[in-house]
Every structure is written in structure tokens, then in C-alpha cells.
Amino acid sequence: MFASLDLLLAFVLFAFVSSITPGPNNTMLLASGVNFGVRRSIPHAVGISVGFMVMVLAVGFGLGEVFKAFPPLYTGLRYVGAAYLLYLAWKIATSGPLSAARSETPKPLGFWGAAAFQWVNPKAWVMALGAITTYTPAQGYLTNVMVIATLFALVNLPSVCVWVMFGSALRQVLQNPRWLMAFNWLMAALLVISLYPLLFASHSFQ
Predict the structure, then answer these.
(1) Which end of the chain has the least Cβ crowding within 10 Å, N or C?
(2) Are 84 and 117 in contact (CB under 8 A)?
(3) In the chain, % of residues over pLDDT 90
(4) Could you tell me the superkingdom of the organism this chain comes from (predicted)?
């Protein structure tokens, strides 16, 4: 188990800060809160936390070693992630007015889509690798990986929900279609900007 309470508290702080700071997930949740409200965005938020927990487990149980052995797999994943992020950015940018959010045309990202997105989210990879390499004691390693993954999910869910609620609070401000369009294009631009660390920063499992 954990070597000390101090290490555990340090990890919880890491999980909170990395979960609540801006990134692709939180940008999308902010936009979802504005366009669809809290209730319709909850599956998206839960999908993020569960999908990320599964990712931490996978990294802890050896996926990182697979990428070390076959670096092209990770490179390919990065470019798949870039393409998917561009698609999501376009979907956000072209979201309709708030009155259309209840129609059959625009739909919030669901549980499975949000869970799958973690595998192509650059910030999620950094968070998962940091959790395993920095905060997981070697003694009782497998148990510690499960504890780390579970705690991360428990900290992550309320943290990302803050962005949904903030987005929902902006709905009244963004009733004007022009302001909403500007907001959605800004969120789309931020998603595109988030491609920088995915494609151009140094990423290696060597």
C-alpha cells in the first residue's frame, strides 16, 4: 500500500489540479454546459471519469510498456487523436442556437464517446502517466494502481462537473445567437490550440 499519508495527499492534490485545469475535456464540457445544460451533459462528464480510470489502469498494468516496445503505435494514436479533436472542434463551432439544443439535430457527447475520447486526449495521457510513474509505490504495485485509478476518478468527476455548471450558468448570457456563435467558435479554437502538445511537443516512451 502507499508508503505514507503524505504521498497519498500529494497524489490527491495532483489529481485535483490536473482535473480542474483547462484542457480538451473541460473545454468540451464548458461548451456542453452552455449548449445542452447540466442534466444532458452528465453522461459526458461521467464518461470522462470512467474512461480515464480505465486508461490509468491500462497504463499501470502495462500499456506504457507496449508503447515503449512499439513507438509507432503511440505516434499513430497521436494523429488519430488530432483528427478526432478537429472533428469535435468543428461540431462545437457549428452548434446551433440554444433553442435548437432540445431538437433532434445537435446532441451532447454521450458516455461512451467521452470514455473513448480519453484514449486520444493528450492531457489525459500526461495525467495517467504522471499518476503511475510519480505516485504509485512499487510495494503492492497492482493494488496501488487500482487505488490510484479509483481515487483519480473520484476526484476527477466533481472537478470536471464544475466546468459543466459554469457553462450552464452562462446560458442566460449567451441567449443572443451572435454571442453563442462567438463562444462556440472560441471553444473550437481552444480545442485546435490543444493540438500543439499532441503534435509538436516532445512525446516519447523511450
Answers:
(1) C
(2) yes
(3) 30
(4) Bacteria
